[in-house]
Amino acid sequence: MEIFLYTLSVMYSPGPVNFMGLNAGLTGQFSRILGFFAGVGCSMLMLFVVFGYAGAALIPHAYSHFIALIGALYTFYIAYKMMTAHTELKTDQAEHKTLNFWNGFWIQSLNPKAILVILPVTTIMYPAAHITGSLILIVSLFISLGAAGAPLLYSFAGSVIGKKLSNPIWLNYLNKVLGIFLIASGLFMLSDFLKGMHLI
Questions:
Q1: C-alpha to C-alpha distance for 12 and 51, rounded to whole angstroms
Q2: Which residues touch 21 (CB under 8 Å, ≥6 apart)?
Q3: Membrane spanning segments where (predicted)?
Q4: How many angstroms separate the CA atoms of 39 and 41, rounded?
Q5: Which of 70, 93, 99, 129 is the most exposed, fewest CB within 10 Å of its CB?
């Protein structure tokens, strides 16, 4: 459960990839950038598979509850930063360069937000949930579909709602809601730590 709460909260919060999708929607390009969304998803799948199998091999199960504690504290920190951030949206209506698959693949591969999603999930949550072997690929595929859906949703919202969504107040409300989801995710990880310490 915490895996999906965590990944959705981070992936769907305002960030560079989502802003690119939003800007494309605001400039009427939603139907022309489907390759961009596919590139984002493929990048996340590649990163999840690589880090997922490496994480399963490198993290001893006996220490996973200590890593869960670190992950919980880190998640609370991200939630705090998200809930106290003030988002400013800047869209350039003059540029209408169509985004393609490789734009999505490379921007997501180089996106620091992607690492915020991947490392805690592959090193903490996968081992804690006993996600190993072929399950790593299956769960990573579902998360990657969600990653592709984030800029797609922003782009769709931009095309439907238009300039109303460009008001930063709505994005700041979204930050706070997603921050609450992150806190819930952190509590699940804290619970994994306590279970590992045989305190509950």
A1: 21
A2: 33, 36, 37, 150, 151, 152, 153, 154, 155, 158
A3: 6-26, 33-56, 62-80, 135-157, 177-194
A4: 5
A5: 93
